[in-house]
Each structure stands twice: as C-alpha cells, then as structure tokens.
Amino acid sequence: MNIMDFMNITDEGYIIIDEKRNINIYNDKAKEIFGLKKIYKKYHDKGKLEEGDILIIANNGYQIDDGGLLDLDLKKLNIDKKLDYGDSFIYIGAYKSNKSPKFIYGKEHNNLILKELYEDLVIEVIINEDDKYIDIKVDNETYKMNFFSNIGHMVILNKDKKLKFYQSEGYTARRESIKDILDLKEFSDKKQLLDEKNIIGKDILLFHDKEDAIRDLIRVGKGENISYEDKILQINKKPVMCSLYKLKDNQAILKIKDIRFLQDLIEEREILINKIKSLKIEAQKISFIDEFIGDSEEIKKIKMMALKASKSNSTIILTGESGVGKTSLAKLIHKQWQKKDSPFIHVNCPSIPENLMESEFFGYEKGAFTGALNTGKIGFFELANGGTIFLDEIGELSLNMQSKLLEVLQSKSFYKIGGNKKMKLNVRIICATNKDLEIEIKNKNFRSDLYYRINIINIEIPPLRKRKGDIAIIANELFPKLCKNLDIKEKIISKEGLRYLSSLKLYGNVRELENILERAINYTENNILFKKDFILDTQEDVKEDFFSFDLKENTKRLEKRLMKKVLKECNYDSKKAMELLNIKKTSFYEKLKKYEIKIKSEKKEL
Fold it and tell me: Model-level pTM?
C-alpha cells in the first residue's frame, strides 16, 4: 500500500504542497469535505452565462459566500435595490433582458420563499434557515443544497428552458460562485469528477481562497516555521479543524477534519446560553424598558440596544427627529446605569449663546474676565463628574466649540477659564441630534474626528409616522398624566379617537401628539373623546406635512386657515366675513364648499 492509498482510507483530509504552491497530494477525504468528490445525479456540459439565459439565485448572505458580489453585479440583473452586507435575497430573471425580474430580500438568517410562474415555468425557491437548506425547484425538478452558515445557490436554464448549470458543493474550489458566473467565467461540466490529473501539480489557490489556513500552508511550504494542531479555521468559508506541519524537501501538510456536527452542537449551545442570559436579565429589563413607551418591532430593538448601552461606559449618540423621545431615552439609560445615583446633567446646546458656551461648559475661576462672578463658576462638565452629561442637539455646536469638546474627550481633562489646574474628567457622555451628522461633515459644519469620537454606540429612534402602531399606546399612556397635570377630571379616548390619532402624520412626533391631546382636553367638555374632538383650527398641522415645496398645496392650506380664522372672528357672520376677506359672495361660497367649511356646525361647536 503506497502513501496515497493509505491517505484515501482515512477519515481525515490531507493536502500537501511544495514551495511553489503546487499540490502534491489531495486525498479523497479532502475532496469530499470541499465538494470536489461528488457523484452528480444531474449532468450538464461546461459553458458560461449568455444573454437570454434564465437565472434563479438564492443567497442567504450577500457578499459573504457568493464570491464577493457588488452593487454593480446586482445592476447587471436589473436590481436597483442597495443591499446590506449579509442580506438574504431570491432572484428570478433573464440575463440582459428588459423584462423586470422577480426579486425579494430580507435580513441575514431570514426565511424566504418565492413561487412564480416565469416564462411558463413553475419556479419555487426556499431559503430555510431553520433546517439549513436552500431548495430551487423548476417544474418539480429539485436542486437542493444544505449549508452551515451562508451559501450562494444558483440554477441557470438556457433559452430553450433546458438545464445549463446548477450550483453544487465545492463551487468555491471550482471558482463557480455567483460572482464568478456573473463575471462570465466558464463553469465546468458535471460529467467528470476531479481526479488526480485534474488536481496534482496545480496551484493550491486555483481551488481555495487565500484564507488563514491556506495562507499558513503556503508560508510553511516556503520555509517558515509554523505549526499547530486541531485549530478551528475556515477554508472556502467552511469551518474545519486544521493541523499544520512542515515536511522534508520544502513540503507542507495540512490535515483537515470535518466539524459540521461539532459546529451544530456549538451553535445549539450558544443558543441555549443566550436564552439563559435573556431569562436572567428579563426581571431587570422590564421596568426599564416599559418606561420607554411603544411596542412596535422598531421600538423593541431600540429598547434592547438601550439596555445594552446602559451597561457600558462608552459614548452614546441618540439620533432621530425632534420629539421622538431622545431626552427621555437618555434619562432612562442613565437611570439603568450602574452609577444611576450619580448626577445627570442635561445640556441644551442651542440655548447657550456662543460667547458663553465655553464658560457654561467648563466654568471659570473668580476674576477670570470682566464681569466674572467673584465666586467663580462651576461648568456643566464639573457638575456631571462621576455621572452622565447629556449633550442635547450636539449638531448645533460651533466648529470652535466642537474643537474644544474633542480635546476634552481625548484627554479626559479640562481647564476652567482663567485656571491653571487641570481637572480630570470621569463622566459618561450621551449625545443627541436631529441632524444627519455625516451630511453635516460633508458640508463642513461638523468635525469628522469629533463624530468618530462620539459615534461609539448609535441608537436611531424612528419617527412616529413610521411606527403608527405605537401612537395609540403612547396616547393612552400620556392622556391620564396630562389630565392630572391640568387638574382636569380624567377623560378617556374612544377607539374611534385612537384610530384617528393613529392615522395622523405626526411630524412633531411624541411632542406634537402631546400637544394635540392637551388641546383636546381643554376644548372638550365630554369625558369620552371622539374623532371630532381632535379636529381643531390647526387640524392641517396635524394631518398634513408641516412643510411642502408644493406652492399650490401651501396656498390652499393658508387660504383655508384664513377663511376659518376670519369666520371665527366674525362670529360666523357671512356678510362681515366677505367684507374682511374682500371677496364676492359667489367666490366666498365656492371656497366654503371647496374647503368643506360648515358655518352652522361651527356655530354649534362654539
């Protein structure tokens, strides 16, 4: 029995290369592990992608195991959607065709299903993350691939709707990834297996990416003294257990064990550990999380991010439109912090005049400048020492103040104005802004180095109009508190009222909702509030965009407001209203009809 016969009966893969990266031995087990030794039940000839070919693609990890797809590659497929790293997607379409493709996508590890009648073919594609497989069916012909983490699967039919190519294990080693195919590289046939004459003497990099294990193997072949045993690494994106040794005559050997079952056990163990951790923190998080009102999926994610952030001393930046609740969330994060009894200093940056900014932030010594207090002044940072400073609307700071703030964050110390004693800083910083700071950087209004310093943990709070399901929940929570604060007997909102509120485009977010509720409480005598009770003079502010570039729309809105205001001033006397508006009777009543203004109903409401 020669050495090759011996290696082919073992349960371990062996790859031996020389100093020139050429393969000397590649045993059957190694071929099996990497999909180079496989008996195919369906055959096709070698070839490459051509115009008119029907493409069916299923990828559960964009840019992970698809050869490194780019947005430009997606454009070749008439996909304008910009995908994020790791997204899953399914595509059915014809190459270089004007016909719109069928395309769906989701986040990594999302289950996806697409079933379509395309070119008279019944095509069904399934990405099943639970059972770890991707199945492409064409007229009940199945092309199934199992995976451990990520995979890019593809089937190609020619213009006659006959099988031209299908993806199978070992596509990375054969250079047949989705990216390779779209780059019009030739794919091999499935009539012959790779035998010794196809592999021996070839460059190892023809079959494997230059990942850590292969890179180490090449380095050892060139004479470097590297060795290790039973180290878990990835080869062609597949986790394997590797042992690396140096042989005589400038040869290197890599021994490989398939750890697919071990990998599954590790994943199951991690899932179990995470569940246990979740149960342990459940009691801690309930009171904290429930204080930030909302039950949408978006807010659930925000709450979990905030919970994690509260355990850290790292700088946090809260982003989102005005009124979404950035201040409330900042206070809750501090409240949950391990130093929750320490000071929380809220600094409203836009409210501080530029000439007072430095003294307000850092304080000053007595006699530091003309007009300075004899006692000196303690600045915000000194007040917050040992606790949290909340820099609200940090995007409004001048470039000069940004520079000073950056210096403080880097050195973790500062000087008072007129002082010569360096004060050490021990403070956790939470920032907030309603601006897109990346755009502000491009416009040279915000320092990029300060942005990278504060953008450690970024929590973006979505506006209410993108999570309308939360409006009713927030309204129900706010309403009793508002009644109590206004010293008014508690009222309730009807289901009709809640549905109406949930339909509004609240561009002022929670702050605007609170304003609407407070008005309704003051204007309504009934204990139960209905839709009509929220129809105020400023209704347009609530149910229409606060700002629009459409001149006609803005003109209509202002005209309607003016009509209603004048009528109210005239106690709904039509003749007086026409005189004040300086319009004729016909025009007056046309506008009443146009804007659905009913004088009788208005009088009754008064």
Answer: 0.45
